[in-house]
Amino acid sequence: MSQANEPAMAGPRDYFGGRLNLEQQKKRAKELLKAVRDGDADALARLEAFHPKGAAAERLLADAQLVVARENGFPSWPRMKAHIDTLRIARRRMEAGRPLVPDSADMVHIRCGEDIRHSLKVAGFVGAFAEFSDPYCQGPVPRLDRAAFLDKRSDFIVSAYERPLKETRDKLEAEYDTVDALGAGGRVTLWFEHDSYDQLILARLLAHFSRLDERPDLQMICVGEVPGVQGFVGLGQLHPEVLLWLWENELKPATEEQLALGAEVWDAVTDPDPTHLARIAHDGTPALPLMAPALQRHLRELPSVRTGLGMTQELALSILAGSDGQSLPAGRIYHALMTRHEPLPFLGDLMFWHVLKDLGRSLEPIISTDLEAAELPWPKRIYMLTDAGRQVLSGELDYLSVAGAPRWVGGVEIRPREPTWRWDEGRSTVVMT
User: Which of 344, 322, 349, 323 is nearest to 334 (CA)?
Assistant: First the structure.
């Protein structure tokens, strides 16, 4: 029997040799849902047999999909979909005469987050996955020995993102230990994109490997756009097949020039004087073309010579200013920032929440919020721009004159009401004022 002729209400016995078709399974779920809502006895019996809530299920499409997945032997619809994707990718590789396994078991894939871990597995990769996600784009990145550096980073992450201290420190230690253990004889692939979150971590990793007398076989995928993907933001949005395409078309060995550039950039990022970093960003980084734009975006987080605001702070206030005096939920401000205002999106949602909290600590209120909403999840908390906030945006009031707490941009500590490094947008450089 062909897949195309599969009965619409097929039960668990109809596997067709295991070659499930996702579109057909979607059709089955929709037809099951309609039958359940129409009171069909067979459909209700399937719901009772395969849904954990039985007939008490809410009877949404997700409920019907769960039943279909369990009829096919999977615990959930996403697990079934991943299985179908895996089989399709394997079939295409067989038809093209390519190896079913693209990498090898001794490969370590390093990524600044968990976002592609599952997709790599679906695409057939068998190497180990290692997350290294210390967000250097926010908080202090000073020149310290490892123990003191991790203390500083842990304290920031705990305070800024409201994370448990032990869990945070243990996670950082584990990530740094994993990277430190990679030496001669190993094979490593770095998966990175074009924003400052990724590029600063990439610089740190390249700097680390450049110092090793015996380093692993190092290669990387570093992209700022992907064919067929409009509005590319990051690797996490890509289908497993596209990650496989990147592996086969964009994978390059790391060169000595790239390693040296990473070391130079990391040294400049951790410097309390940002002039060298500004010079690198201005002159360009041909060995790693995506690095220079990311560094310039990073430097724009320094206080503006005009307003005293970092770029993310200024964009957040501008979004509120553009609401015609109306208050906005924090989640909507974040969405507007990431989809319409941020030129090089890099912030996660908790990272943006840290920015809003920081603005809310100013000595003279720049933004106001409803204190009664303090118990709500942060995306639903309502904010409004104050008169002082409008004065800051217009350049009439310097934000650093009313800022409530110090903050860091890389190795630069910015202390309110003290001389500090600033970003001059007109000249695209840094100045001390």
Answer: 349
Contacts of 379 (CB under 8 A, 6+ apart): 329, 330, 331, 334, 349
Q: What percent of the chain has pLDDT over 90?
A: 79
Class of the CATH domain delimited by 107-266: alpha beta
Where are the strands (E) in 132-284, listed by range?
139-140, 187-193, 217-223, 252-253
Neighbours of 5 (CB within 10 A): 7
Fold classified for 311-432: Arc Repressor Mutant, subunit A (1.10.10)
Q: Where in the chain is the domain with CATH 1.10.10.10?
A: 311-432
Distance CA 333, CA 354 (A): 13
42-61 tens-digit pLDDT: 999 999 999 999 888 888 99
DSSP 85: H
Contacts of 69 (CB under 8 A, 6+ apart): 25, 75, 76, 77, 79, 80
In terms of pTM, does the model score above 0.85? no
Do 196 and 346 contact (CB within 8 A), yes or no? yes
